[in-house]
Every structure is written in C-alpha cells, then in structure tokens.
Amino acid sequence: MTTQITVKVNGVEHFLDVEDDALLLDVLREKVGTTSVREGCGVGACGACTVLSGGMSVSSCLALAVRYDGAELTTAEGLDETDDVVSSFVDCDAAQCGYCIPGFVLMSRELLAENARPSECQITEHLEGNICRCGTYPEIRKAVAAAAERRSPR
Amino acid sequence: MGDQVGRSRPRFDLPGRVRGLVSHVGDQPVGTAAHVALHRSTAPHARIGEVHVDEALAMPGVYAVVTGLDLYKQLGDRILTGPAFADQPGLAHEKVRYVGEPVAAVLAADLKTARAAADAVWVDYEELPPVYDLRDALDGDAYVHDELRPSSVFGDLKHLRGVRDTNVNYEYNLRHGDAAAARDAGAATVTGEFWAPPTHHVPIELPCTIAWVDAGRLEMLTTTQTPSYVRQTVSDLLDLPLSRVRITTKPLGGSFGAKMYDRLEPLAAALAWTTGRTVRLVASREESFLLTTRHGAGVTSSMTADADGNLVSAIADVRYDTGAYADVGPRITAKSGMVASGPYRIANASVRSRCVYTNKPSAGPFRGFGVPQVTWSHESLIDELAHRLGADPVEFRRRHLLREGDEAPMGTTMHSADFVGCLDAVANAIGWDQPIERGDGRVKRGRGVAVGVKAVLTPTIANAVLQMNQDASATLLISTVDMGQGSDTIMAQIAADVLCLDSARIHVVRADTDATPYDTITAGSRSTYHTGNAVRKVAEAMRTKLIGFAAQHFGADDVTLDADGLHHGDAHVTIPELIHGHFGARGATVTAEANYTTEWVPYDKETGRSEKATEHWFAGAVGVQLTVDTATGRVHLEHLAVAGDVGKAINPKLVEQQLSGAAIMGIGHALFDQLVLDQGQVINGTLLDYQLPSIKDLPDKLTPIIVESPHATGPFGAKGVGETGILGIAPAIANAVRDALGVRITTLPLTPESIVAALERSDPWTLEEK
Asked: Where are the alpha helices (DSSP H) in A4-136?
C-alpha cells in the first residue's frame, strides 16, 4: 500500500507517494535525491544514514518513511560551507574517503545544539555510534571542538 | 621546480566530501535496470543437483533467473576467473564450496522483488565432506577443488596446472643457510604457535556494480580499485577485444583491499551480456562479508641467538587459509612468506609458506597483504628472545635491524628503508628510556614496540597522460582510484610542482578505461611511487614541450619555466599566451604521455631467494604504552606512536592520516576485530555483531611520525605509506601486555577473556589454531 506524505528536506517541501514499508533512507536517496544519506549496515550500527528530524538524529535505515509525514529533515547537503560544523570539518581535514562524514557532521550538530561546550569525553560519547573506517577520529574530535569554539567563542 | 610538493594541501574536494556531495557508484540513477539478488548456498561443500527456479520465475516483476549452468552453457570454462587461479565462477557450477556462495541470480524490476524471488529458489544438494579449517585441509582427504587451474596472469604458477588431490594451491619456500642446524647449535631459542584470525575490511560504502551493453560493447560502472584488471577479466570472460569493454569508477567510500580483482564484476558482466539488460548488483552488508576476507593465518616459528646474542636462525611454517577460492592468496603467500623472519640480519633462515583452500568465504588482499600475520610472529619472537636474554627489546632490535646495503635473508639488498630511524622515533615518542610507573594494584602498566617490513608490489606498470589546457590549467588522466587516501590530490601536487603551477588547477580524471591509460592496480602502497613517477615523467615531458614551443616563440634555445611562465633572458611569455600563439586558438590543448614500469627477478626455484624481489621496501615501527586491568583483562592504550619511512612526504597531512588511520584499524585487529566462523558459516556477519574501532577506541594519545629517508628513484624521493602503519600494531600491543603482565599471548585478538585466561595459565605459550 502507498501513502502520500509531506516532508520538508533542507527547507524544501516534498510530496511523496511511499510504500508503507519503505525506509526513510531509500526515500531520501531515491525520491528526494539526498545521496549524502548512505546505507552502511542496514541495522542502525554505523551511522552513515543519519539524518536530523526536528534537530534530533535518526538512523534512516531503521525508520519507516510513512512515520515522517510532516517532518522537517536536515541532511548534510542542507548545510552550506559557512556552517560552523562543516567549515570546522574542512579546516581540520576531518574527512578521508568521506563516506561516513555527513553522519558525523549531523551528529555533531545535534550535540552542539544540546551542549554548546562539550568536553572531549562528551564529544566521544556522542559520536561513538558512528563508524569511520579510514580512522579519521582524531581530526573529527578536533573539528567538533573547533566548531564549538566558532559558535560561541570564549 | 615549484613549491607544491611537501605541502599539506587539503584534498581538493574536501568541502564536497564533508557535505556528501561527492557522488559514488551507488548514487547513480540506473533507469529501467534489472535489480539483481542472489540465491546463496546453504551447504559448505556439495554437488549441485537440480536448481528449482520455477516459483521464483513466476513471481510478478521477475525478469529472469540465471543459474551457473545457464552461464556455463553460454560461456563455458570462461566463467571461471581469478587473479592467480581461474577457479571462481560468478555463479556456482557443479559444486558449491562455501555457505553463502551465489548459486542463482534473480533479475527483477526492483530489489525487493528480486530478494523475495531469490528466497523462493531452492536447490538439491549432494553434500560432500567439508573442509572447515587448516587442519582438515592439510591432514584430511577431502579436496575443495578437483584440480588446480592457474590463471594466465602469473607465468610462474603454470607448472601447477592439473595438480590433483591437494588443498595447497601454492607453496613458497625460502632456504638461506642451514636454519635447523643453526637452531640446534644456538644458545637460546624461542618457539611459538601464532594465530591471526580472519577479519573483514568493512569499507562503509557497500560494493555496487552496474553493467550494460551499448552498441555491442560491455560497459560498467563499478566500485573497484582495479579498473585495468577488471577490463581484462571481462574481456576474457566475454571473449571481447579490450576495445569493446569499458570500466568506469567513482571515488570509493573506502576499500582497504575489499573492492579489487573479481568481486561483483564478472557476474554483472555475464548477466548484462547474456540477458541484454542493464543490471545493478549491490551487496548488502551481510553479503559483503561473504565477498572477501583477510586470510586467517597460522604460523609455527622459532628464532635463535648464539651465546653472543647474534641472531643465527629463524624458521617459520606459515599457513594462509584462503577459503574456497584462491583470489590473490598465492601472491600473499610468497610476498609475506619471504619476510616471515622480519627486518633482521639473520645468518640462516627457513620459511615454508602455504596457501590453503578450505570451504569458507574466499580470502584476498587486505591492507598489509598478509604481512601483518607474519609480523605478529616475528615481532613476538624477537621480543621474547630479548626478554629471555635479559636484553632491552628496543636495543636488541636495533642491534639486528637491517641497514642500508645489508642483504636480507630472502636475498635482496636493503635500501632506502630506515628501520632504525622508525624504531628510534617511536621509542623516543613513548619515552622508552624514561622510568615507568608499573602500578601496584590490579592495573599494571607496560610498554612495547614492534618493527614491520613489507615489499612494494613488483613488477608493476603505471601510465599517465597529461593535457595542458591553453589557460594553464591541466587535466591528468591516470587509472589510480581515489578511495580516501588522497591520490588525486598528491598526483596533482607532483604534476604541479614540475610545471610550477598551483595544484588546484590540475583536474584528475576518474578511472575510465576508454580514456585513462593502463595502471596495474591501486593497491600494495604502490601508487605514490609507481604512478607518482609516471606523473612526474609526464609533467617533465610537458615541460619539455612547452619549452620547445617557447624556443620557437623566442627564436632561441635558452628557455626557463617558472611560476610566471617561460623566460628567455628578459623576454617573457605566459603559458596561455604561448599556447594561444602556438595553435592560434583559445582552449587548445597540448598532450604528453609517460610510462613507469618496475622489474623484478623471480624467486630461485630451489632457495626462494631473489636478488631483486621488490623495487623497494616499506619500513615502519610502532611504540605503545598501555595499562591492563588484571581483574577484567581490559587493555587501555595510553599512547600509541606509529612511524613510517615514506622517503619524502608529498603531502604530510595525508601521510599522517594514512599512518594514524592504519593504526586505528590495527588496534581493532589487536584487541577485538575478528570474523567468527562455525562449521564454515560466518556467525558475526552484521555490524551489530562485528566489532569495529570507534572513536572510543582511540588511544589517549596517538602520534603519527613521518620518517623521511629519501628514495633514490622515488618521485621527489617519495614512496607509499598505505600499509606501513598497520604492520606492527598488534605485536607492539601484545609486547606491551607482556611487559606489563609477564605473559605472552600468541592468539589474536587480545580479548579481555584471553588476557584473564593467560594470567591463569602456567605456560604462557599456547596454540589455538582454527
């Protein structure tokens, strides 16, 4: 069965016919075209499919699209190069292949919205569910601290 | 020369990578493609009876169901492919050889339908005795393959054609002096049984291949590190001239050896060609675990010193479990076997290294190419030998490390490989000479080091084509695949430096075999040296051309090139003016090409030695300070320093990331990362069950150290670094655990359980060979 839903993705409204069992991940990739949202494991264990819904992180590989009718979603494409988190990741070389990085960027946005001055330990705790196989973790940790500094300088 | 080499220039497309705008293979729209799902074997070893496809075929949306027999009828023995042995069919034919092997392919309108239909296929099997592990394979009488079938790729495997009644598809032997006699006469010998389990690469991007037929040509877009190899494979498979096969790639979302040689590509090509449809194959994460693995390896080895502490003997028996298909296992077996005694001066050495078939998913290349498994052995042995002799483990290694001009046990003279510099750098970084607070409660502290040596893939071939555009931007055509290591960036830096340009003005074209020239593979840490040299040469050829044009322009031979353009005395012309003037057109291009090829001397048949086994060596070292909780067995890494001799860092930041990234991957291999199989079945093949290093597994301090001992013939003195960092991680950690607790563990990974068990054992040396 299909249902029509309305979602706002990066500020743009989309009217979509979705199967009841369609995953938010597949709908975003195939119907909206936001391919920064990526399948890495299909079981919510790697974080590559992370999106923000109303500012809260969601593993879109585990989320049914029909449940996001009316939602406001953010993907990494929706952040421009002047965004504090994006620019900090760029300045800290916090991407190698970069495949997992959009997920880290969105998790970092969520963290900084909740906690403007996270400690190194809090950054680590918040990002532990995301896997970067290239091993960019030192640069990622630096980038999140730099973004916090940019958002609210001491 | 310009100022581009030696600078930490960010990857040119970094903002796009951060925002997810760099597109990958799986992002490409495929229109009305047939989506492919695979029905997989439920038996580890069985003859295939009837394959029942009717129910699947009757499902709405299913276009076709293809079996191994269907492909065999059309393509014959050509369905068997592989880099060392032509032993692997895209779909199993006659026999299945591991649980999860593809038996039938369903083509359907969408992936969901295809997967449902694949579940509706069933197969009659006549089960055969399974070969689950090395012991079954070497001691039993069941054989995974009826006979050996060497491919045409490596000439030195030809003599193995038709060999029957064995699971050993390749054996490398090194004989240097009389190692057994020297061991017996020696003053101190340590002996060990080592085991490194199979692991998986887990690049986060899943493998994906799209193939179609266009005007009688087979075209493909695929996640591969080896586009030139895949082109040849598809050409052989379909019996097409190379000109009628086109392989294209996109940047890879990581690979580490997972996406190379024959993965989804031969099957995708066969399905597209035989059905005429555009086909899209994507592996789920669970399926990716079945595509390839890192070889589990057992090593039985010893190291002996004489009364003066000289190393007089090293002996190793190495068994690589290559699973159901050889892939490149025979190459791994030789290249790693030849360094099984480590980077040391040893008077006598004996190595037997075997590549062994079992009924398990095939093992292939993985960052380090089998060397981490033998490094696990030699770095544990030399460490233990130092302890037994009452010597300092750093000093003892220093005394015996190969130096410039020394002949290594496998017969090749060592050059441009600064083992001592790497070891000193990590020892210094972790404060080896400083007093250590051991801890007096349940938490104990220790330090350990390890040194690694690996040969660069030789012989190999690299080509480069450079187009200088009239506006003094340039387009570089190479078939090197950027999978995160940053090859596009450093190749642009090399070309730019020669031509005194800003590297940001050089675009590197993604591999497309219709346009980019042959390059052996993007693997084995070979690209910086080989492709980098081809790029240096092509830029030099371009410089010569431009200087020639300028000589005509000035009417004089004495011309120089710098960042402002071309000069003769006080006369000056910019590159845009020069090319515009030469051709009379804006937008004109000037083309140059270059090749760089390395040669080797094949191993002597009797001794396994070679005066030139490789073009050059990678030298790396690791130093660790850690604590162990003796109650829980948990290891905490306080400081890990990893050094690699890269000759010259073209881009220091990218080199540091290769070192630290490899170290983080190696921490997983040391402490928890392993693929667990039970009766041939992968039982932790999901990311809920398979543990990978997360940001929580970072050491308190991680120090990547660049050692620059310039390589005489490297581009600007450079050589590669992709694997150097991973070689010594596991033994350095185990050596630090030994230092902390006094127990020696020889089975990876060092799980908390294994450490607690080792503390409770009286004899610290054990074997648990799987």
From this structure: 24-27, 84-91, 101-114, 120-127
Q: Average of pLDDT values for B649-667?
A: 98
- The tens digit of pLDDT for each residue in B358-396 reads 999 999 999 999 999 999 999 999 999 999 999 999 999
> What is the distance between the alpha carbons of residues B672 and B754, in angstroms, rounded to a whole number?
11
Predicted local confidence at residue B763, as pLDDT: 57
Question: Which residue out of A19, A26, A97 would a mutagenesis test of the B interface target, given it has the greatest number of B Cβ atoms within 10 Å?
Answer: A97
The 3-state DSSP class for residue B464 equals strand
pLDDT of residue B762: 58
ipTM of model? 0.98
* Mean per-residue pLDDT, B170-182: 98
Q: Which DSSP letter does residue B357 get?
A: E
Nearest to B409 by CA among B330, B529, B316, B300: B316
Q: Is B664 on the interface with A (CB under 8 A)?
A: yes
Contact (CB, 8 A) for B408 and B402: yes
Is the pLDDT assigned to residue B460 strictly greater than 50? Answer: yes
Residue with tokens 């002799």: B389
B717-734 pLDDT, tens per residue?
A: 999 999 999 999 999 999
Are B305 and B261 found together in one domain? no
> Which of B531, B565, B597 marks a domain boundary?
B597
- Give the Cα separation of B169 and B333 in Å (integer): 10
Please give the pLDDT value at position B152.
85
Task: Report DSSP letters for B114-144, one per residue.
Answer: HHHHHHH-EEEEEE-----SHHHHHHSS--S
Task: Please state at what angle helix B393-400 crosses helix B371-389, rounded to 10 degrees.
Answer: 110
Surface of B (193-222) touching A: CB under 8 A = 201-206
Q: Which residues, including other chains, have CB under 8 Å from residue B339's CB and lie 6 or more apart?
A: B371, B374, B408, B410, B453, B454, B455
**Residue from B126, B115, B128 nearest B39 by CA:** B115
**Paired tokens of B728:** 């010594």
Please indicate, yes or no, whether residues B610 and B725 belong to a single structural domain of this protein.
yes
What's at B477, amino acid-wise? L
Report CB contact under 8 Å: A105, B19: yes
Three-state DSSP class for B495?
A: helix
Q: Which among B18, B203, B686 has CB closest to A90?
A: B18
Domain covering A84-151: architecture: Orthogonal Bundle (1.10)
B154 pLDDT tier (thresholds 50, 70, 90):
confident
Q: What percent of chain B is modeled with pLDDT above 90?
A: 97
Query: What are the CA-CA distances from residue B189 to residues B183, B305, B338 (Å)?
Result: 7, 6, 21
A82 CB-side CA count, 13 A: 0
Q: Which residue of A has its CA nearest to B655?
A: A96
Per CATH, which fold does A2-78 belong to? Ubiquitin-like (UB roll) (3.10.20)
Q: What percent of chain B is helix, strand and coil (3-state, nearest 5)?
A: 30, 25, 40
**Based on the structure, what is the number of domains in chain B?**
3
The reply to whether B316 and B419 lie within a common domain is: yes
Using 50, 70 and 90 to split pLDDT, how confident is the model at B769?
very low
Site from A10, A35, A41 to mutate, B interface, most B CB atoms within 10 angstroms:
A41
Provide the β-strand partners of residue B34. Answer: B279
Nearest chain A Cα to B14, which residue? A90
SS3 of residue A108 by DSSP:
helix
Write out pLDDT tens, residues B567-614.
Answer: 999 999 999 999 999 999 999 999 999 999 999 999 999 999 999 999
Q: What is the mean pLDDT of chain B?
A: 96
Q: Are B483 and A97 in contact (CB under 8 A)?
A: yes
C-alpha–C-alpha distance, residues B342 and B397, integer Å: 10
Percent of chain B residues past pLDDT 70, beyond the cut: 99
Q: What is the rounded distance in angstroms from the CA atom of residue B471 to the CA atom of residue B586? A: 8
